[in-house]
Write a structure and sequence with these properties.
Elements lengths: L19 E3 L6 E3 L17 H13 L3 H21 L14 H6 L2 E3 L1 H16 L7 H8 L3 H9 L4 E3 H11 L3 H4 L7
Antiparallel strand pairs: 1-2, 3-4
Length: 186
């Protein structure tokens, strides 16, 4: 292997020999396809892609948080200018979406009636021949996350969103209106 930088002579790129080129950084002969073609004559075919990627990664890792923030801001302005130059209109950001689902999710129900029904369901499963029926299995049966079930069980959440309560009730095969009185459902 040749020593590094031995192929660059006076700022001129290395010559191509039998479809291969000498990388001035890693000191290896590599196929011509491993090199990028630069517009600048001084950089043309001097560094292989692997070395260029390594150098870019080292530059990024050496940046301070302030430099990263400045770089992102520069990129934001640069891309904004490119979009305007291509004639793309300024993007209009919509206000936060409001739909029926969002309004329904804001309805919160007390957790106690649902918790009592969940415990009753688990006791029924255990007495019907599955003595090892656990809360994890319950979460799988009702197709709800174990974390949501845990929050309801431990009282971490004092109230339950209506969509979560409905999913649990549907999974147990009990209508939500039987668990909660008409006044609680709104």
């Amino acid at each position: 292997m040749r020593p590094k930088w031995s192929g660059i002579r006076g700022g001129q790129p290395n010559p191509i020999v039998c479809g291969r080129k000498f990388c001035a950084t890693c000191g290896r002969w590599r196929p011509l396809s491993d090199f990028r073609v630069h517009r600048d004559v001084r950089l043309r075919l001097s560094y292989c892609d692997a070395c260029l990627r390594r150098m870019a990664r080292e530059r990024r890792e050496a940046m301070t948080p302030q430099q990263i923030e400045n770089r992102r801001e520069y990129d934001r302005f640069y891309n904004y200018g490119r979009r305007r130059a291509r004639g793309q209109p300024v993007r209009e950001w919509r206000t936060p979406r409001s739909s029926a689902v969002d309004r329904v999710e804001r309805i919160l129900l007390p957790r106690e009636p649902l918790l009592a029904t969940m415990e009753q369901y688990i006791r029924a499963q255990r007495s019907n021949g599955d003595p090892d029926f656990s809360w994890e299995q319950f979460a799988r049966v009702v197709k709800c996350s174990q974390r949501a079930i845990y929050r309801i069980r431990t009282g971490e959440s004092q109230r339950v969103r209506i969509d979560v309560a409905d999913r649990i009730a549907y999974g147990m095969g009990v209508p939500l209106s039987l668990i909660y009185e008409a006044g609680e459902l709104g």
